[in-house]
């Protein structure tokens, strides 16, 4: 049995069948195909000192049932832990029961600045990284002077929230941001830009500033590639899914949650082209580097952009890929859901053989 650790809200939504990204039917496909039971649970369902979990169990050919089961030895984390007391609880649970967690996610693993630094030390990856710095007023100005466009984003943000685009056009600066999914822009002089900066980013340590990629366009709209790179049954990193998110016309954000359109990767790129090869190469190199620093990483959703010369740029890595980019391709959505579980099952078999030997 594999434990599947989730945050409480998506777990309850999945049980009711109304979650947008955790699909019980895909987990059921894994259980029925590979004959490996799953136990779904949240932080509320565990006690570091109890040898059992009061979770939701899926057995081959059976419906999801609430049951108390022995703590599994292997777990796949789909949860994000931010609060220190919750982090302490789950770490104590892992330590007391000697369990193994794959894809563990706390602030440490999700820090965009830390992730940039660990990738920036690899020559083969560095050329694919936009210039990025901790947010300061001087760093904003330096990026604007050099590239004319700067992106400011939260270190721990997701779904395109609180991401701001600033553009320099002569002595005028254009600010673009989203307000309740509505694109808002304003034009200001330098002194007013500084006033905006001081009022908007009162805690600059929570943000980074980044070179804005001069993005390639499709149908006059910018786009971003979401690439799933995962540990497969072979134990190797492989690209298991990809799609393109097409921003709304005039928008600078490509997140599905911000209204972007999802189109198949093959609509823009030939999967056998040099560009597709480069995307596979870059994403697998990035995944291997993440694994060096976070050894139990097995599942990444990597966002890439291409510039006008088709050069590939890394934007960010998502350690809990919600797979919304595969909404129109259920086969790809299913495959990227079960691939990490197949890898974990193979690890369980290998460990069992080693113990028996």
UniProtKB/TrEMBL annotation:
SUPFAM superfamilies: Glutathione synthetase ATP-binding domain-like (SSF56059). This is YheC/D like ATP-grasp. InterPro entries: YheC/D. It comes from Kroppenstedtia eburnea. The lineage of its organism: Bacteria, Bacillati, Bacillota, Bacilli, Bacillales.
